Amino acid sequence: MTTLRITLLGNLTVAHAGLPATPQPTRIVQALLAYLVLHRDRAHPREVVAGLFWGDSTERHARNALSTALWRLRRVLEPDGVPKGAYLLANGSDEIAFNRASDHWLDVAELEQQASRALARPVLSLEQPDLEALEQTLVLYTGDLLPAIYDDWVLVERERLRRIYLNSLAHLMRGREYREEYSQALSAARRILDLDPLREEIHRAVMRLHAAQGQRALAVRQYERCRQVLEQELGVSPMPETQALLAKIVRSPGRQPASDNAPVETPYAYAIAELQQARREFAQAQQRLQRAISLVENLSSSRDLATTRTPTSNYSGDHGAPDFGSRRSKVEASLTALG
Fold first, then answer.
1. 181-185-188 Cα angle (round to 5)
2. Cβ atoms within 10 A of the Cβ of 156, count?
3. Strands 95-98 and 4-7
4. Domain boundaries, the chain
5. What angle do CA 116, 122, 127 make, to 5 degrees?
């Protein structure tokens, strides 16, 4: 049995030889432990870690706070009977580190390793044992990384690990779909949409999978869910390919093998899907910004109606292009005036 087991996904736990560590780590100790094990490939200068965790404090207070947190972390990682330095390397040094050569197991490392191995293989080459192994790996993801902590570095790592999980689920879904295991593919697809309901390609997959089982009404219902969430969250309509898939499902009788509607897999499938989604979200963000600017301008104009009778033009230049720079300056001034 591995001497030390650490889980960071969902609830953070530390166990020695199967027994929960005592005392239970405080929030700051949890964050420090997570930082060191997630960046276990190198040692970290004390002043860098102190600045990261106590950046609003004086340098002296930050270093003292770090020393206290390290003392508490050592009690968790190295209780009585465990040699000092077995897991935490911080003895009188200007650097601190988690001992990556120690006998330990980390859920994040296991997820990363197994997911990377699965994603490196094309969907068409995945056999039943491969899919079952991937299923078991994904069980490790019991929740987001340190869900109660919102430090910037945690948010970055949380999103990175969530993407690994979602991409692995999508790989599993496609593998099940290719093998015509439609119920299991649907289960994976729904797990993706639970965390990321804006992934339109997954909505299309659910539509395909329902159609493959002769569940045309459910496929149409999924399209409606997709349309509603895109309208509510992004203010956009489904992509042309989603609408085309709906039309094909509606006019085609009976069952449709999902593979007939599935897109051809490429080595860049996941990257392309995320790029398309990012472009759509960016375009929508621009639209929201424009609406917000117009709203604040209207509020400002109403407030100053007694002195300003003519609304300021939203456009400038010979071709009537939006003058966002000028408008933004006016909006900032209006916001300042509005308090």
1. 150
2. 11
3. unpaired
4. 4-102, 107-270, 280-338
5. 95
> What is the average pLDDT across 300-325?
48
Q: What is the DSSP letter of 181?
A: -
Tens of pLDDT, residue by residue over 15-42, are 998 899 888 899 999 999 999 999 999 9
Q: Is pLDDT above 90 for 87?
A: yes
User: Dihedral angle at the C-alpha atoms of 238, 244, 249, 250, nearest 10 degrees?
Assistant: 90
Note if the bond before 23 is cis, omega within 30 degrees.
yes
Residue 329 above 60 pLDDT? Answer: no
Confidence of residue 292 (pLDDT cuts 50, 70, 90): confident
Architecture of domain 4-102: Orthogonal Bundle (1.10)
Q: What global pTM score does this model have?
A: 0.75
Alpha helices by DSSP H, listed for the chain, are 27-38, 46-53, 59-77, 107-119, 128-138, 152-178, 182-195, 200-212, 216-233, 240-251, 258-261, 269-303, 324-338
Q: Are the beta carbons of 144 and 163 closer than 8 angstroms? A: no
CA gap 283, 79 in Å, rounded? 53
**Cα–Cα distance for residue pair 191/205, rounded to 1 Å:** 13
Question: Helix H segments across 264-323?
Answer: 269-303
Instruction: Name the CATH architecture for the domain at 107-270.
Output: Alpha Horseshoe (1.25)
CA separation for the pair 224, 226 (Å, rounded): 5
Q: How far is CA 141 from CA 8, 166, 176, 179, in A?
A: 9, 10, 20, 24
**pLDDT, tens digit, for every residue of 190-238?**
999 999 999 999 999 999 999 999 999 999 999 999 999 999 999 999 9
Select from 63, 78, 68, 6 the least CA-distant residue to 40. 6
Note the pLDDT tens digit of each residue in 98-146.
Answer: 999 999 999 999 999 999 999 999 999 999 999 999 999 999 999 999 9
Neighbours of 45 (CB within 10 A): 12
CA distance 44 to 201: 41
Per-residue b/e over 170-193, b at no fewer than 16 CB within 10 Å? bbbbbbbbbbebbebbbbbbebbb
